[in-house]
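User: Can you model how nicotinamide-adenine-dinucleotide sits in this protein?
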Amino acid sequence: MRRIETREARVGVIGLGYVGLPLVLLFEQNGFPVIGFDVDEVKTGMLNRGESYIRHIGVEPIRKAFESRRAVATIDFNRLAECDAIVVCVPTPLGNHREPDLKYIHMTAEAIAERLRPGQLVVLESTTYPGTTREELLPRFEAGGLRCGRDFFLAFSPEREDPGNRNFSTRSIPKIVGGIDAPSSRAAEALYGAVVDRVVSVSSAEIAESSKLLENIFRAVNIALVNEMKVVFDRMGINIWEVIEAAKTKPFGFMPFYPGPGLGGHCIPLDPFYLTWKAAEHGIWARFIELAGEVNTSMPRYVVDRTVEAINQQKKSIVGAKVLVLGLAYKADIDDDRESPSFELIELLQARGAEVSYCDPFVPVARRGRKHDLNMASVPCTADEFSRYDAVLVATAHNAFKDVALYAKTKMVIDTRNIIPNDAAVAVVRA
Ligand SMILES: NC(=O)c1ccc[n+]([C@@H]2O[C@H](COP(=O)([O-])OP(=O)(O)OC[C@H]3O[C@@H](n4cnc5c(N)ncnc54)[C@H](O)[C@@H]3O)[C@@H](O)[C@H]2O)c1
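Assistant: Here's the modeled complex, given as structure tokens:
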């Protein structure tokens, strides 16, 4: 605690991705020496040279932190022994049967356990089901004879990063902290209290783990609701976007969510299923989560059906039709394409016989992912290019796509994000 107060405490951050890298910068900016750990040598090399691999973070803060050598990145996990506090931000994906895949957490837990020494604080930040910190980390750490709360400290603190959101930063987003025991809570509160504006202390690691899941389930369910409303209102000839604009003028009791072509990103499509899996262990079914998953995963197919219909209305066949998908990133103005519904849109359209291209200034080349390998590169974002297609399908609301002049010669736009104004002189199908 004293070392935290005096900023002498060395902070180790494991997993230097969308969550871990901003944390490295935050601790460094607040005067702490930081070691960033990753298994990916390309990333650690780039950071040590002052380069960025996450576009919205940019180069400047990384150069500042790493050039001074107050922050260093490494693949040498022996250096964990040098750290007073260790923050774990490794991936928590789903397996092939939508079951939690804890292999990264297990690998990291073993790496820490081998080097754990008295006085260290370990905080798990990766999103996971309630009980992970106590059931998966604690026994591994205590196996060597050290006791939690006496010799070392262990807590869970969920990450609430919203990549690309300019209104909130890692510092200004309140940080929930829940320890395995009271001393662990106090140690974790002290660590985060030194770098964020507000720490919210809860009574256990399980409450902290569950609060993160509730936040993401809340989003998944509400997005599903509005996606279902889109299908219903569309059948009735009512524009869902105008309905939401009207409803959101209510100053209380309503929060707008917007429909889209399906869920994307590393969190909302995956995290809720960590809870359904754990709930099943207790013989209980989380039906809202399953239903939301069903509605949200059916969206790409719905959008493709609407596209096929619209092309048919033009007296054309989808077989051989040229379709341009706008946006490979899962949300506006970021370069993160993980779990993006655009991959499925492209594959479904190809399966129906369309010739598909994509345009995304943030993703010049489609990276090979766990499930998809498109082997495609972005076409230019110009009116001439857009005019070459039978349909242009807006999947992501990048600002670059909002200039209506781009669509001046476009034959037809399928707009899943409501970026084309009602009065634009172009044929629009909202889907
Ligand atoms: N991206 C978000 O906005 C966000 C928000 C809240 C919570 N989360 C959660 O935070 C966690 C991390 O997500 P992310 O988006 O930063 O993932 P990411 O894929 O961007 O980063 C994970 C990093 O961990 C590294 N890694 C993998 N295995 C490792 C190991 N054994 N040891 C060290 N490093 C390893 C990877 O190389 C990668 O750099 C996940 O649990 C996620 O659900 C993410």
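A couple of observations from the model: The longest helix spans residues 205-235. The pocket of nicotinamide-adenine-dinucleotide is lined by residues 14-20, 37-40, 43, 89-92, 104, 107-108, 126-127, 159, 161, 163, 266-267 (CB under 6 Å).
User: Helpful, thanks.
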